[in-house]
């Protein structure tokens, strides 16, 4: 099964694409991580995952049809070369919708999170692009189909169609039509996420090749699906019970387990920098002193602190430079 075959039944023969509205999708931080694919073409995961969306932080994207034989991709106001990996990945996604008389686009996209630094730009980027394509080609897809479509661009993007807590069910089908995300009904006002920006530069190994290397070379990876299955259940239970320490502990343990599988890859895959470990040690010290603060970390050197509103002043005293996000607003 190929992405083209998945998208084909959704296309509207005879409808020419028009300029889209500007579409927004939030970035998201996984509390139980997606790491490893059972199908590389369709981005079908080996384990289910659960995230929280980052409210106003994410991607704005607009598509304009142009009379040109290539797409023109603009990121944060700069026109990218057609040969850049970024432009190619966007054009490959747009190819899925081009039929007999192919239309090319000016793609204008803006990330309010750093690009390719482990802050899930591929998630908000492809979710916003899926929404813009749906609008431009007048596909009228429902939320489930949009989630599948975004997943074809980047796995984690299927979760960025929704706000709040979001679960990506891995599905079983070979065509992946049952592998999409849905929002949880629970909210958690007062939950805070603190971005510790250690390094906002583009990482050396993107998530896609990092997870593939882990799968192919790390024996430790065999235990990852078992760990993830246990963690996602415990995280859902903690969310239902509003058990902050349960949530934080499981999310941190899940992140550390994922990084352990990466480090056991060959060549070793270490996204941490010395400042990442220093921030972790500060978190562990604060917890030992009784402050309920935890962290999670994706494929990059930056930490995301998890804490509640009541602890915010104490956390900020030790991490004065963090950007604080309130996924569910303030109490
Ligand atoms: P991240 O941790 O930021 O998600 P990844 O390695 O997963 O890093 O993905 C980075 C890639 O995601 C970029 O190189 C680019 O191909 C894609 N991407 C990032 N932002 C956007 C965007 N706004 N629109 C389309 N694609 C994007
Ligand atoms: C560590 O979704 O970026 O952030 O599907 O190849 O585009 P592709 O990978 P991507 O991987 C995200 C990995 C992660 C964990 C997560 O977001 O669940
Ligand atoms: Co990504």
UniProtKB/TrEMBL annotation:
InterPro entries named in the record: GHMP_kinase_C_sf, Mev_decarb, Mev_diP_decarb, MVD-like_N, Mvd1_C, Ribosomal_Su5_D2-typ_SF, Ribsml_uS5_D2-typ_fold_subgr
GO biological process, one term: isopentenyl diphosphate biosynthetic process, mevalonate pathway
Presence of the UniProt keyword Lipid metabolism in the record: yes
Residues of the Diphosphomevalonate decarboxylase-like N-terminal domain: 25-181
EC number: 4.1.1.33
Domain of life assignment: Bacteria
Keyword terms: ATP-binding, Lipid biosynthesis, Lipid metabolism, Lyase, Nucleotide-binding
Keyword check for Lipid biosynthesis: yes
Domain called Mvd1 C-terminal: residue spans: 198-318
UniProt cross-references to Pfam families, sorted A to Z: MDD_C (PF18376), MVD-like_N (PF22700)
Gene3D superfamilies: 3.30.230.10, GHMP kinase, C-terminal domain
Coiled-coil spans in chain: none
Single GO MF annotation: ATP binding
Gene Ontology CC terms: cytosol
Family: Belongs to the diphosphomevalonate decarboxylase family.
Listed name of the protein: diphosphomevalonate decarboxylase
Source organism of the structure: Nitrincola tibetensis
Source organism phylogeny: Bacteria, Pseudomonadati, Pseudomonadota, Gammaproteobacteria, Oceanospirillales
